[in-house]
Specification:
2 copies of one chain form a homodimer. Chain A is built from 7 helices and 6 strands, in the order H-H-H-E-E-E-H-E-H-E-H-E-H. By secondary structure, the first copy, chain A, is α/β, with parallel strands linked by helices. The first copy, chain A, has a 4-stranded parallel β-sheet. In chain A, strands 1-2 form a two-stranded antiparallel ribbon.
């Protein structure tokens, strides 16, 4: 059973996988179609050699420049700053944004050893100094680290008065329940209340 | 982004995977160590060629005969009948059973198109007719299909009066799945098994 145990052990290292789910998945893989296993196995084994960060914005791409940076139909006066590459996908697929992106590669977290030097602020500053942006939207997470990072960006861009600096609204999630909202979220949604 | 989307699409086909979990996992794989990805990818791609059912009991093995059937220290007068190969692992790892196994390959489910002919009853009967078993423990799931299968086995073995036929005690929640039972519950249900 060494092959099953090896597979289980490897699956268990994935985030959110426990003993039982790893076991179920590996037995599932023994039962499924072999060509599916080969396709999945190959996709996992080769993903890192196919994908690299876009040299301009830092989101993942298979091409020289990512599909957002090379898309002529996007609004080049809008820049959205996010923490991680997958945040680009979340925002792009919301359908409410048609500008460019900049991926920081994380958020400032002094306790976790992530200072501004670990993030892509130099290339952000370079892009902004090349001009053309009318608005920069800070879309870091509504967490302590995301807030710190947002403050740092505001400080970084303080001399660019031509640029409107905005941040994603915080508040109650759509479909959420007021009774389950935490105090901080309620406080933010009150402070950020809009004319109705 | 085709490679990420392909990977995500393949991960989403795994049981229990939704859109978001597939997305999280694929972005996790881009960030992790390449050697881990290669090991996991290879383990998934090759699992089906490494593993085959044991010709005697039907549980999965890499060898000619599985580790349970070839283990001389196990009690050869005890036979435990289970539905699926992973059930063997659950029962063996409970530590309360030291006999042999027989994997049926499922449970009788007329509505799902699984009749007795789809299951390994001929080889079960052959093993029992070769003699030597003093007790046969029916460890099918405590579901309608598992119960039907247990009744079928009782009918099948009705002429073998020399064999004590038992079934796992309740303690397993009705409608549950053997694969999710904790070791203690399995141990109790083995110790409290009742004459069927």
């Amino acid at each position: 059973m060494e092959a099953i145990e090896e597979l289980q052990g490897l699956i268990k290292k994935l985030p959110g996988m426990g003993e039982k789910s790893a076991q179920r998945l590996s037995y599932h893989l023994i039962r499924t179609d072999e060509s599916y296993n080969r396709a999945l196995g190959n996709a996992i084994a080769t993903i890192k050699e196919k994908i690299h960060p876009c040299p301009i914005c830092g989101c993942y791409t298979e091409h020289d420049i990512c599909s957002y940076c090379s898309d002529g139909s996007r609004d080049r006066s809008l820049l959205c700053i996010v923490e991680e590459p997958q945040d680009v996908l979340s925002i792009a697929s919301s359908g409410a944004y048609n500008g460019l992106f900049h991926v920081l590669g994380g958020a400032i977290n002094p306790l976790g050893g992530i200072g501004p030097d670990s993030l892509s602020f130099p290339s952000l500053l370079k892009r902004i100094e090349e001009g053309g942006f009318k608005e920069v939207i800070i879309a870091t997470n509504p967490t302590e680290e995301g807030d710190t990072t947002a403050l740092y960006i505001r400080h970084l861009l303080k001399d660019h008065e031509e640029i409107a600096l905005t941040r994603l609204a915080s508040g109650l999630p759509i479909g959420g329940d007021l009774g389950y909202a935490d105090k901080l979220t309620l406080m933010r949604s009150l402070r950020g209340r809009i004319r109705f």
